[in-house]
Amino acid sequence: MSQVNPIILALDVESATEALSLADRIGGCVDFYKIGMELYAAEGPAIVRELRARGKDVFLDLKFYDIGETVKRAVAQVVRLGVRFLTVHASKAVMEAAVSGCGGSDLKLLAVTVLTSVDQKDLEDDGYARTVSDLVTLRVRNAIAAGIDGIVASPLEAASIRAMTGAAAILVTPGVRSAGAGHGDQKRVATPAEAIRSGANYIVVGRQITRAADPGAAARDILEEVASVYRSAPPDSL
Ligand code: C5P
Q1: Which of 12, 62, 191 to mutate for ligand 1's pocket (most ligand atoms within 8 Å of CB)?
Q2: What pLDDT tens digit does each residue of the chain (238 aa) get?
Q3: What phi and psi values does residue 216 have, to the nearest 5 degrees?
Q4: Which domain holds residue 34?
Q5: Can you tell me the distance from the alpha carbon of 57 to that of 96, in angstroms, rounded to the nearest whole number?
Q6: Domain-located, residue 130
Q7: Is the beta carbon of 178 within 6 A of some atom in ligand 1?
């Protein structure tokens, strides 16, 4: 992989005012922002356009899941917004429809395999007869076969998923915390450096930056932490 700024900042806030003032405070050390369901439900495509107008890349984390035609048409609208990453659930039919909605554009599709909040009991309740890890493996394989560009994964699964996908896939890992930073409600975390070392191309960071007294400084600390990984290993070997 080429060495890029790997931070995607999660804008888990409820208004465009909050989101944009955060982006303006952080400035140039974060170029990529994740908009999830909360902010998108509050502000719609306007917040995507505002960030794009500031020269920022947008990861739209809406985890699409619907009938094929609806997914295809919705993805085509996301393409028109100039979004860089979009998540879809790793159902075969959903992923195939999403790929066709991309129509050769620059939008990169990321598959969500099994939500990290889901455990074995949840799968049984939903009628699945597989273990969580078997289902993750199956869905990663299906994602690659469907032509999906990348996978969202826990940093603790990143190395095994990277082994399945090969180098070309984009691996994005939330659930990262620097040593000494508060975990919040995250239980299974790894440091940004560990995530990159395990094969992640991008790390999604939220509260460690957004709740810091100086968010820009918190972002720069993470960049410094991961720079030491890039320095110690040739980027192409990551
Ligand atoms: O504040 P924090 O760094 O925990 O935020 C993490 C972001 O990543 C949130 O937007 C959360 O929804 C997302 N996420 C996660 N764990 C997953 C998948 C997504 O924390 N397994």
Answers
A1: 12
A2: 446 899 999 999 999 999 999 999 999 999 999 999 999 999 999 999 999 999 999 999 999 999 999 999 999 999 999 999 999 999 999 999 999 999 999 999 999 999 988 999 999 999 999 999 999 999 999 999 999 999 999 999 999 999 999 999 999 999 999 988 888 887 778 999 999 999 999 999 999 999 999 999 999 999 999 998 988 875 555 5
A3: -65, -45
A4: 7-232
A5: 24
A6: yes
A7: no
How far, CA to CA in Å, does 233 sit from each of 5, 79, 238? 16, 35, 7
Within a domain: 71: yes
Q: Are the beta carbons of 26 and 215 closer than 8 angstroms?
A: yes
In a domain, 158, yes or no: yes
Reported as type and span, the H/E element at residue 215 is helix 215-232
Is there an atom of ligand 1 within 6 Å of 116 CB? yes
Domain of 185, CATH number, reads 3.20.20.70
Ligand 1 pocket member 204 (CB < 6 A): yes
Count of the separate structural domains present in the chain: 1
- Calculate Rg over the CA atoms of the chain: 17
Residue 82 lies in a domain: yes
Amino acid at 23: A
